[in-house]
Amino acid sequence: MTPGDGFISIRNVAKSYGAFRAIESISMEIGKGEFFSLLGASGCGKTTLLRMLAGFEDVSGGEIWIDGQEMSAVPPFRRPVNMVFQNYAIFPHMNVAENVGYGLRKLNLPKTQRREMVEEMLDLVRLAGYGGRKANELSGGQRQRVALARALILKPKVLLLDEPLGALDRQLREQMQVELRRLQRSIGITFVFVTHDQEEALTLSDRIAVMDGGAVLQVGSPADLYERPASRKVAGFIGTMNFLRARVAERANGRAHLDVEALGRLAVPAEATTLAAGSPAWIAIRPERFALSDAPPADGSYAVEASLELTTYLGERCRHVVRLAGHETRIAVSAPNARRHQPASLDLEKPVWLTWSEDAVIVLEEDRT
Amino acid sequence: MSPTLLFLLVGVAVPFLALLLISFWTRDGFGFDTTLTFANYERIWTEPIFGALLSRSLWISGVVTVATVLLCYPMAYYVAFHVHRHKMLWIILMTLPFWTSYLLRIFAWKVILGYEGVINASLLSLGWIAAPLEFLLYSPTAVIITLAHAWAAFAILPLYVSLEKIDRSLLEAAADLGDGPARRFFRITLPLSMPGVLSAFFLIFIPTTGDYITPALLGGPDGAMIGNLIQLQFGAVNNWPMGAALSIVLTLWIAAIGLVFLALSRILAQRAA
Questions:
Q1: Torsion over CA: B210, B216, B217, B218 (sign)
Q2: Beta strand pairing call for A8-17 and A61-66
Q3: Are A224 and A260 part of one and the same domain?
Q4: In whole angstroms, what is the distance from residue B119 CA to residue B128 CA?
Q5: Of the candidates B176, B180, B192, which has its C-beta nearest A93's C-beta?
Q6: How many Cβ atoms from other residues are within 10 Å of residue B181's Cβ?
Q7: What is the domain range of residue A329?
Q8: Rounded to 5, what percent of chain B is helix, strand, coil?
């Protein structure tokens, strides 16, 4: 998406509190109907950015455009966005129906129509019949749905969600993830979703912006971020990753040759890295890209000898920690349990052989700090 | 028996029942005729002086209560929402005048409101009035002003506590759902601060209705309240049964008005939603 053509266009937006710069010049484009996540650890600026979209915080620099309109002079109560708050902010002095219908008051609709819209909304979030309940009679999941219904009833152009699933227990959270996705698909509203949970972001999002220290590290689809991380930080933040220190030795014949810690010389296609010969680098390989066997490959192809240090049985897969022969370097390997009793075939006492395909290797620049 | 119950029994129930019993007696010379009779209540019902003083008392303390809550709400609101540091210091400073004696404050108001007092002297020297304003002192006005000031602390504290407790994200949610500042106040802040408003109402209305020191010192002939009459019955007039009956009637009136106010605020809160 090129700058300026997004449904939401964030252009060089910065935020500082006094001398503290919470957000340093962020630019990104969010498409119409997209499920877009802001992912990062606490303090990375994701919530601040969301609150600037809602209008609760002024921007210190830059512009936010939503559907072709610049937002800096628009107060929160006139913006075409609605928000689901982290603590849900259910009005305690009103029942569920009054909460859900809160925003309809100013629209001057006839009472019967308002009631119908509230009923419809409660149906959508599967709370039909709960209209008369008091806010304090609701469970966490139900409060979350009330907050959703209350925000969606106004048919906003954008729905902002501030860690809406953080307070729920695991099972309920997974169930709500499915419902959120279903809801977003069925109504087609743009969702901007803030979370610190990478698994949640991967499950839900069309695209994710990974944030750190008030800056955006990378924007991309879940698969992009997982398979083609742009930096060591992103690679480490999304999923599990093995990192090995390396140096580009030479580029020749359409190949880049790297000297890798504990593995020795490794060749990758030249387009895997733009680094010049002599540059320090990291290579990164996902645990599930390794294959582990109890004997060297019969065809004599490349394999690394290692010893098994730890095996954790996880049902669908096994997680191994292996130590490369003659080195202190440890590698995490994740192997699917494609056949029954497969883990038994690997022995902690005997050496194992580690293989991987060439395209499993990701070459990353040294992080600038 | 729990300590609370014991305290209520000894401190509230027993004295109240004693008062109730005495109110059915009559005066007999310097003693009491302990035959039970409604004579005192009949006198209160038939002789206009009692009704007049009672309704004036309820009116004055009603005005005092409303004025105090209206004046203190903005102060409490300001500290709760717009002061971010040293909030407690602000509250303490606001209640500072109440650290001085009640009598001292009454005399201070005398100096301010008097015939040659601060207000009259200033207005005269400015040439805004030709003669001193006489309604300022020894009048219901003086009683209302003094009482409203005297009881301000009892309004500020409960109002502040209830406003401070309001979750700020509720106001953000209301703004997010399209409400401007005024609507947010009437739909969220005011209903959620109603407990504070109610406490302030009761904390001021109940004691001021029976107050007799301020009307005695500042009220003049038109500013006397039912408390003055009750005090007379237990003092100079030496008619304890009559005083007791008046106290019971006053208590019933306050309870009735309190209940009406409670019901009214409930209905209003429902409307706002």
A1: positive
A2: antiparallel
A3: no
A4: 11
A5: B192
A6: 12
A7: 242-365
A8: 75, 0, 20
How many beta-carbon pairs under 8 angstroms link A with B?
Answer: 64
Q: Between chains, do A77 and B176 touch, taking CB under 8 Å as contact?
A: yes
Q: Is residue A1 part of a domain?
A: no
Q: Are A273 and A280 in contact (CB under 8 A)?
A: no
Q: How far is B189 from chain A (nearest CA, A)?
A: 11
A288 in the same domain as A206: no
Instruction: Quick: pLDDT tens for A40-67.
Output: 998 899 999 999 999 999 999 999 999 9
Q: How many domains does chain A have?
A: 2
CATH tag for B52-272 (out of 1.20.1070.10, 3.40.50.2300, 1.25.40.10, 1.10.3720.10) = 1.10.3720.10
CA atoms of A331 and A71, how far apart (whole Å): 49
Same domain, A228 and A311: no
SS3 of B180, please? Answer: coil
Among residues A76, A70, A190, the alpha carbon closest in space to that of B177 is found at A76
Which helix (H) or strand (E) element contains residue A25?
A: strand A20-30
Q: Do residue A77 and residue A190 come from a single domain?
A: yes
For residues A44 and A114, state if they share a domain: yes
- The β-bridge partners of A216 are A211
> Counting runs of H as helices and runs of E as strands, what totals does chain A give?
8, 20
- From the list B169, B178, B191, the residue facing A89 with the nearest CB is B169
**CA B16 – CA B147 distance, rounded (Å):** 26
Percentage of residues in chain B having pLDDT higher than 90: 59
What pLDDT is attached to residue A348? 74
A128 and A185, same domain (yes or no) = yes
CB contact under 8 A, A154 and B179: no
User: Three-class SS of residue A212?
Assistant: strand
Question: What are the tokens at A332?
Answer: 């995490």
Query: Which tens digits make up the pLDDT trace of B217-227?
Result: 888 888 889 99
Q: Does B260 touch chain A (CB under 8 A)?
A: no
